[in-house]
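We include the pair:
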Amino acid sequence: MNRTARLYALVEELRAVAPRPLTVAALAARFEVGTRTVQRDLQALMETGVPVRTTPGRGGGWSIDPEMTLPPIHFTADEASALAVALAATDASAPYAGAARTAAQKIAASMTGPASAAAQELAARIVTLPSPSDSTVRTTVEQALTTHTVLRLSYVDAAGHESDRLVEPAGLLTADGRWYLIAWCRTRQAGRGFRLDRITAAAPTTEPAQSHELTDLLRASAAAGAVRPTALAPLTSPAPTRRRARR
C-alpha cells in the first residue's frame, strides 16, 4: 500500500471506531508498518486539516471527530474519473485550490485497478496556466468566507488607483478566467466585486461580518459591470411578474 492510500485508509480506520481512540501500536499492526511511520502519517493528516487528535495517557490514542468528516461515498469508475480530472484541472491560483488537490489525492487513493490507472492517465493530460495571484491573499479571503468575518483590503482598480477597504465577504464569482470576491464594501456603502489578482493585501479581523444576500450584491457589484457572463443573466434581469388568477 502506498502512502496516499494508507493515509486514506487511516482516516477510515479511525472513523470506523470513532469517537473511541486507537493507539499508534494498533494502527501500525493493522497496516503492517512501523510506529514511526504511523506517527508521521497522523501528523501529516493533522497538517492537511483532517480533524484527527491525540489523547495522552492510559486509555488514550488517536481519534477523529466524525462530525467534521464525510462518511464514505461510493462513486462509479466514471464518476471518480470525472472528479479526479476536474480537480486536477483546478487552477493553482484559484480559491480552495489546496483543498481541491488533497481531494483529488483522496479520490485517487480510493480507486484501484484499471479505473485508477485511467483516471491518473487522464489527469496527467490536463494542463493549466495559473493566473498571477498572491497565495496569502487567497488564503485570507478563503478564511474570511469560512469564518464570516470582516476583511481589510488594499485594492487597485482598473484605472490603477489604490484604496483601502473594509469589506463583508458574501461569496466568490468566477468569470472569463478571473475570480472576484463579492462583498459589501463599507467604504463605498455598496456591493462590490474585487478581482483577486488586484487585491494587493488582505488582513483578517475578528469582527463578525453581517449576512448579505449574494444575489443582491451581484446585481450591484463592480464585477457585474466588468463582465456579464451567462451565469449572471438571471440575476441581472428583472424578476417576472406574476399574473393574478381570474376569479
Remarks:
- The CA atoms of residues 114 and 176 lie 36 Å apart.
- Confidence is low (pLDDT under 50) at residues 224-247.
